[in-house]
Every structure is written in structure tokens, then in C-alpha cells.
Amino acid sequence: TFTTEETESVTIERDLLRHAANLDKLISETGRDASNNPLPIHLPRVTKETMDALIAWFNEHKDDADWVEKKDEDNKIEDIPDYDKQTFDAIDQQILYGLIIAAELLDIKPLFDSTCKVVAGKLNGMTVEQMREYLDVECDFTEEELKTIREENEWCNS
Amino acid sequence: KEEAAPLSVHVHKTPLRKVPAVSANRLPQSILIHIFQYLQLKDLRSCMISCRHWFNVLSQEDSLVWRSHALLSLPQCALSDSSLLAETKSYKAKLRALAHAWNPKDSSKHNYVRPNLLTMHRHPVAQSTDGIRGKRGVSSGVHAYEITWEGPLGTVAVVGVATKHAALHCPGYVALLGSDDQSWGWNLVDNSLLHNAEQLGVYPRVNNPPKYQVEERIRMIIDCDSKCVYFERSATSEFLGIAFSSLPPVKLFPAVCAVYGNTEVSMVYLGPATMG
């Protein structure tokens, strides 16, 4: 059983959750109630929409092979399962971030991998102005600071 | 062993509170580094400039981001050489050194750059003086380079700076670097300073300056703001005095020229420096 920030509680079949490596640890940490049922696991910063997307992801991937950590040079940004690519490219950014956070919390490595790659894919090739628009922030550096950072990192452009 | 919980959804009608919007710029460092590791260096630079939080995350120079880029770009032989990159303390610094390294495309054809990407090697070609420039020139700020002459010096072994126009090859054995107004050189063999084909005196400016020992590490500092070049002995950080002053406000590249067959020179960019 999971509760989210908006106090919905959702009960999920255990074997859907097999990619969540942290689960046993979380369950033992949250303990049990008086009748020896496991207490609900609270997921901070996760909305209902994120929860729905998460459950959909679990359903899609429940029969996947166990996650194998790839070496850096083999782990390419394009390596995303089709379902993940199509779904995550289209969903709301808030839900995408929610999924990343949930994936980190529950240690769901394949989901964490896909979602991070999708965000990286969006940032790929953006100008600074485009990045700030994507982040919805104003520049929070002084002119002086900007100049220094630009110059000291000019070599990155080669 | 846990039993499978029933598949049912239990929904409360009244939400306690709305989750505040998550913005990518407030994602925690632990998540951001996993996103940044997939970006190219030029995009990482843009990320650093976008907002302070991302800049702070990317200022951790040994994080997963810089480590994975370094491991992909730097040859194993360079990374595992315990002394070559000793002065570049972080993965980011190592990447930066690579960006400033000897340029195999801006060299006499008689030189090549070794697989470690940081050491140049001169072929044993008779009657030829051969030079090479670093990949990046500088025209503002203060920049330090660690240079190690690793092979025999021969009669001419000049370390210094050059504009992009300076010649990198000529027949015979001459002090090519410093032979015109496009380069400035310190010949380690006789300790003479050269520019515009003139000998400007002996350096360091003491009586009987010590001879350069092969494999000794020296630091060359190009100070574009004060328009001068000076050297230090790396081992002791001993300042050897200003070698060249009144440099023109143009892009200057680290450069060497050599005449001895199979001699080698390593150059590792150390980054911006403060005047010592």
C-alpha cells in the first residue's frame, strides 16, 4: 500500500513491484500496524497523476528481465524502451519529474534510467535561453559571474 | 515472505494538500547528475550558465558527470599514468587539460602526438626543426601549463608561445620558436630567450643559471592581462622571473620546437592561475 502527498492510498500487487529494489527495505522501515499488516508507504512529492503513470509503467514492464547495469560506454542516451520513449516524451513535465523522484526513492533502476535519459534528450542542444525557458527561471547570476563562468568553461565548446 | 496485497484502489475524497510544482532546476543533485551524464560538454556549459543550482551541481568536479566524460574521452594510458596528470586534481580538470593539449593537426608533419594525447614525439628526421602548438590559444586571463621535456634536448629545445601564424617547420637545426615576431621562446639548452630572431639575454636572469634537467617539470604561465610570460619550477614553485613582456593582445598558443630525433615533450594545461 502506498500513500501519496495527496493522501490517496493505492494498493499495488507485490509482483508488479519487482523492479523496485528498495521495497523490502522500505517495508521493514515503515513497520507494521497492530494487526501485523504492513503500514502504508508514504511517497512524498508524488501526485495522483504520477502514481497513475507509475502503475501503468509497472504493468507494462512487469514481465521484463531483471535490470542489468550497463557500462558507461555502452549506455547510450537513445537506449530507451519504446513504451517509455513514447509515453515520457508526451507526458506533462511535472509527472515526468515525479516519476524520476519516485524511481529514485523506490530504487526502480530501469525507470530511473529511462526518465533521466528523456530529460537529457530534451536538454540536448538547447541554448542557454532555451534552458532557462524550460526551467522557467530568470538568470540568477550577475553579469560579472556570467562572464567568468562563460570564459572558464569556453573549452567545453571545442 | 510477504503475501501479494490485493489489487484494489482506495481513494480518499479530500486531498490534504496540493503538491508544490517541481521544477527541473530544483531537482536534487543526486538526480541531476544522472541526467547531466548524458549531455555533451557544450551542453554542460549551457547548463552551468542557466541557473545557480545547476552551476553548483556541476561545480562538483569529481561527480559522476565529469567522471564518466573523463573515462570516455581520456585514454586509459593517460589516466593510469600516475605522474602525467598528477597536477589535474579533478576529472573536470583532466578533461580541460585534454581540451588544451598538443594539437596533432597544428604541428610539423615530423611530430606526432602519442596515444596518451598529451605527449608529442619528434620523428628522427635529419636537418629539420619541428614545432607544435596546443589546441587552444588564450588572449585573456592568466593560464598555467605544465611542460616536461622527456627526451634528450639536442642543440635546440625551445619552450614558449606562438601566435597561430608562427611557422612550425623549417630545414636545418634552428631556434624556430622566437625566430620572428610571431613567437617567443626559451631555449632550454643554452637558457637564451628569443624573440624576433634576437637573443634577449639569459633566463633566469642570474649568473650561471642551472641547466634544464631532462624530465624536470616546469610551469609556463601566460598572463594575458599583464601581457607577459613567466616560468616556475614545478617542484618548488620557484618563480624564475618574467621571461617576456609587452606581448600583443592576440591569441597565444603554448608551443615548442625540437631538433633531436625521438625526443618527447608533454604539456598539461593546469587552468587559470593567479599571479604568483
Strand order of the largest sheet of chain A: 2-1-3
Mean pLDDT of chain B: 90
Number of helices of chain A: 7
Q: Unreliable stretches of chain A, pLDDT < 50, 5 or more residues?
A: none
Pfam families (chain B): F-box-like, SPRY
Organism (chain B): Pristionchus mayeri
Keywords (chain B): Synapse
Protein name (chain B): F-box/SPRY domain-containing protein 1
Structure commentary:
The complex is a heterodimer of chains A (158) and B (276). Chain A has seven helices and three strands. Chain A is mostly helical. Chain A has a three-stranded mixed beta sheet. In chain A, helix 2 (48-61) crosses helix 4 (93-106) and helix 3 (82-90) crosses helix 5 (109-123). The longest helix of chain A has 15 residues, at 109-123. With 276 residues, chain B is of the alpha+beta class. Helix content of chain B is 17%, strand content 32%. Chain B is built from six helices and 16 strands. In chain B, strands 2, 5, 7, 8, 9, 10, 11 and 15 form an eight-stranded antiparallel beta sheet that branches. In chain B, helix 2 packs across helix 3 and helix 4 (64-73) packs across helix 6. The longest helix of chain B has 10 residues, at 41-50. The radius of gyration of chain B is 25 Å and the shape is elongated. Chain B starts with 8 loop residues before the first strand and ends with a strand. Chains A and B meet through strand 2, helix 4, helix 5, helix 6 and helix 7 of A and strand 1, helix 1, helix 2 and helix 4 of B. Chain B: Residues 21-69 form the F-box domain. Chain B: InterPro entries: B30.2/SPRY, B30.2/SPRY_sf, ConA-like_dom_sf, F-box-like_dom_sf, F-box_dom, FBXO45-Fsn/SPSB_families, SPRY_dom. Chain B: Pfam families: F-box-like, SPRY. Chain B: This is F-box/SPRY domain-containing protein 1.
